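Reopening this ticket.

The earlier resolution said the output was attached, but the attachment link was broken on my side. Pasting everything inline this time so it's all in one place.
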Amino acid sequence: MTNSRILILNEKSVNFTLFCVKWVPCSARVVVLGSHPKGTGVWQIYSLSKGELELITEVEKPLAIKCGTFAASSFENRHLATGDFSGNLNLWDLEKPNSAVYSAIAHTSIINDIDGVGGINVGKGAAELATCSRDGCVKIWDARQKDRPVAILEPEEGQTRHDCWTVAFGGAYSSSERLLAAGFDNGDLKIFDLKTMKVQWETNVGNGICSIEFDRKDIEQNKLTVCTLDSRIFVFDLTTKHPTKGYAFVRQKAHKSTVWSGNHLPQNRDVLMTTGGNGSLCLWQYEYPAKRSAKATDGTLEGVAGNLKMIHEIGVAEQPITSFNWNADKLGLAASTSFDQTLRILAVTKLNCL
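Inline output:
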């Protein structure tokens, strides 16, 4: 048995609502994004030194900021891509924060989530961003192409538009292969093959999808974690698809509330952290079955799901944990934000024993 534990190293209270936290790549800095009570946006950069957090940059923006990512940026630039409450996509140079290096009116409503690929050790191929919105659209962006998206994934005319809450890139193991998963408020899960621009697979998990993430972006599709409103976590094994049953999955209940996000450990794709609406963190390990596929009754192969084992659970906040981000360079170092207006620096011990 492992003795992995989640420890709080530092806490920093702020005077605005926190929606997102990201480690600045290859640094000991974190950037937090959010909204002032008057509706303006804000981002702050903190430096972590000897366990203490020092505020080094604070910038106010006209519109509340919901989400951000560095995943489409190069190491030289480390540009932060953000989505705001009015549907704007912006790309920022952290050293020159007053004006965006790239801007687009991406959606007609709030950008709920953003993800990137092709950036710092994040998959092969061109650097691209994906945004999703309350308007029901998922859009792909290349900052080299101004004002218009590379692709738009949306319902056909006459179909119901559901609020898209989350997007995630995966399967970017070559310059021509790329997948994008999207989760919707009605429980719809769709995986798009961006090479063929077709839906590779879709299903419904029964309740709103708050977060999705491939276990790694730069490998052939392996696992996809889905977190939902009704305390459930799904891990889909994407290696074998049955013609009618689809992909095998394991399902767990946790947090006794909404599962806001699921985040795989960069150094070990079979370890993940989930965040709860009750202010708790849960550390999990995925255990593979002896065989990942078996012959079904109709003679075709079907996937065999593994097991999701909880390693540790801890309550760290009185309100929902809105965001969690592992540090890609330091094993076990992480940051989280919550609706109690607190940034937390965390350490998870003995992960090398899992």
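Reporter confirms the inline version is readable. Residues 211 and 279 are 16 Å apart (CA to CA). The mean pLDDT is 95.
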